[in-house]
Amino acid sequence: MKHKFLSTLTALFGLTLLPTLCLAAESADPGDTAWMLVSSALVLVMLPGLALFYAGMVRAKNVLSTSMHTFAAMAIIGVQWIVLGYTLAFGGAGPFIGSLENMFLNGIGPDSLSGTIPTYIFVMFQGMFAIITPALISGAIAERMKFSTYCVFILLWSVLVYDPLAHWVWGDGGWLLEMGALDFAGGTVVHLSSGVSALILCLFLGKRIGFPHERIVPHNLPMTLLGAGLLWFGWFGFNAGSALSSGGDAALAFTTTQTAAAAAALSWMLLEWLLAGKPSALGIASGIVAGLVTITPAAGFVTPGWAIVMGLLGGAVCYGGVMLKHKFGYDDSLDVLGIHGLGGAFGALATGVFATVGATSVLTGDWHQLWVQFIGIAAAGAYAVVVTTILLLVLKATMGLRISREDELVGLDQTAHSETGYNL
Questions:
Q1: Measuring CA to CA, how many Å separate 240 from each of 37, 107, 110, 243?
Q2: Given this model, what pLDDT does residue 256 score?
Q3: CA 419, CA 416: separation in Å to the nearest integer?
Q4: Which residues pair with 113 in a beta bridge?
Q5: Distance CA 317, CA 299 (A)
Q6: Rounded Cα gap, residues 314 and 259, in angstroms
């Protein structure tokens, strides 16, 4: 009788705990939440890092205007993402675009969850990606594009290009996601799309005055190196944060990110030493970014050993990509196509060759994955090219794209912003 009473009492006590247990099962994981808060902040640090990286490579008369391209993106896309961008990318299910159900983050509250983290954190993490992608494009048009047109361009480009591509690859029901395309942290969505769009902008704008006959050199390489360091630091959030948890997937992505960046910096430095006679600070900074771009789509899918291979190859591919502008004569001011466009495409394709963790590839006997990766690259690249071309045709006819010759000679710091970067 005594045992029966104790059993009944225990059962009743368990029933009183049931609502609490159910609530705990539906609450955010503290470790994952903390990691994703940190990761989101790390990705934001990449924006001032990018501003320094780009600003150091232009002439002194354009240091502030080049930085403004990145900070303007933080302001414009920071608002656009909340109003419209997030819902187009992640609101609702569909093969090509999200719904409008989450405009202004409608329907999302403090208790809303995306997996094991609050949805607000997921929104912010993805929003950092949305901000940096058009900011990457700005490197190709430095020193010669109208600032007003640039602001309108990145707003429209984000709505028409970035948000749909993000849905294709990461959104619920996205057609590339359903096909099985692998893009851990944005090789196609971020880097390929920005790289090919940058090329189209270069062709529309034309060359800077004096290019390629006059030597246009960076004015502050220590600034560029500092920017490269901040990009490397922030990229741990970019890639490892894309695991959306603080577990083993994040640890793997963290490791492969570090490994590939180092390998690509090494291969770029050695290639430059061999072909140009001397290694340069700008070269090793470019190699670091090339490695980070290359590993981005594969970060959580490859082992560290294959990350070394991808980094070594990615550094060489991007080095060759930068040389293309001298061969074909287009003026990609800060090598967006050569590093981000080609690096993103190569990394996405290489993911189909080297992925062995949570995915299959050529290494595991799955040649079909390589074909799927190729389709993803071709579709994302072609879509970005077509929409960017149409967008620029409209903006050229309505607002104009390029500053005057006089303004370009004086420098955009003074003519566009009435400031100077240095008062010495």
A1: 12, 28, 24, 6
A2: 98
A3: 8
A4: 118
A5: 18
A6: 12
Both tokens of residue 89? 């990318």
Length of the chain: 424
Q: Can you tell me whether residue 345 is helix, strand or coil?
A: helix
Q: Which two tokens stand for residue 87?
A: 């819902």
- Taking the C-alpha atoms of residue 318 and residue 341, their distance in angstroms, rounded to an integer, is 9
Name the pLDDT band for 10 (thresholds 50, 70, 90): very low
Residue 270 burial by CB count (10 A; 0-12/13-18/19+): exposed, middle or buried?
middle
Burial 312-332 (b: 16+ CB within 10 A, else e): bbbbbbbbebbebbeeeebbb
Residue 28's Cβ-side half-sphere holds a number of Cα atoms within 13 Å equal to: 23
Grouping H, G, I as helix, E, B as strand and the rest as coil, residue 210 is coil
Per-residue model confidence as pLDDT tens digits over 62-112:
999 999 999 999 999 999 999 999 999 999 899 999 999 999 999 999 999
Q: Cα separation of 382 and 346, whole Å?
A: 16
∠ CA 316-322-327, nearest 5°, is: 115
Coil, helix or strand for 13?
Answer: helix
pTM here?
0.93
Structure tokens at 143: 């020193």
User: In whole angstroms, what is the distance from residue 297 CA to residue 291 CA?
Assistant: 11
Q: What is the DSSP string of 302-323?
A: S-HHHHHHHHHHHHHHHHHHHH
Going by C-alpha positions, the residue among 168, 178, 142, 183 that lies closest to residue 331 is 142
Phi-psi region of 372 (alpha: psi -120 to 50; beta: other; left: phi over 0): alpha
Instruction: Report which DSSP code applies to 8.
Output: H
Q: Which residue type sits at 387?
A: V
CA 47 to chain centre: 10
> Do 220 and 15 meet the contact criterion of CB atoms below 8 Å apart?
no
Q: How many Å apart are CA 320 and CA 265, to the nearest integer? A: 14
